[in-house]
Amino acid sequence: YHRIKISPKILEKNVFSEVQQKSSYSYSVKFSDDPWNDNTTRYLYVKAVNPENGYFAVSNVIKLSYQKEIDRADFAKLFIDYAGIKLFDKGEYFYEDVSKDLWYGPYVQTIYNLGLIKNSSTRYYPEAKMSRADALKVVMDFCDTDLVIKPGAPHFSDIPEESYIYPYVEGFYASGNVAAFADKFQAKQSATKNFLKHIINECKENT
């Protein structure tokens, strides 16, 4: 994030929503029901008031930039880096649109060698957006997460039982990793860096 120096002019614009917090403990601020699909830049500051005399202090404004969607080339590198996987790109490169001299080549080939992506096509489409569904499937297969379906399923109104991602989403739900999600998973929505990092961290903690 970026810190921006506070000024009376900024405060007078009245563009901030007030959240009362009287304790000294940490406090979570909810900006969106879908934090990984929020394309709005947010600004946050803290105002501390002395209850005895009314004097107050105001922090700098913190800029929370919106998250950018990642493509399939970005995903390959970010997944390998976040999951702490050593590159393993031996053998002939399988995908005709991925070569060793491309920056993402060794990362894509590593995922292929680990058997984490389907091979129904000889094209990887590195410039295409990486969907949440495809990202979740790769991560859960890597972590060998049990695809448990709890009573009451489906737990996401937009994921029907016939969907290929249904057992993965329900397995993710069963492992207790959905506190940050609303009632929709939005599987076709493009993944972001924070979305990928979140599902990797949650899955690894439960394996």
Contiguous uncertain segments of 5+ residues? none
Strand order of the largest sheet: 1-5-2
Number of strands: 5
**Mean pLDDT across all amino acids:** 82
Rg, nearest Å: 21 Å
N- and C-termini, Cα separation: 31 Å
Oligomer: single chain
- Helix-strand string: EHEEEEHHHHH
Percent in strands: 5-15%
Number of helices: 6
Largest sheet: 3 strands, antiparallel
Give the fraction of residues assigned to helices. 25-40%
- The dominant shape is globular
Class derived from helix and strand content: alpha+beta
If you had to describe this structure to a student in words, what would you say it looks like?
It is a single chain. By secondary structure, the chain is of the alpha+beta class. It contains 6 helices and 5 strands. The strands form 2 sheets. A 3-stranded antiparallel beta sheet has the order 1-5-2, with no helix packed on it. A two-stranded antiparallel ribbon has the order 3-4. α4 runs parallel beside α6. The longest helix has 13 residues. 25% of the residues are buried. The mean pLDDT is 82.
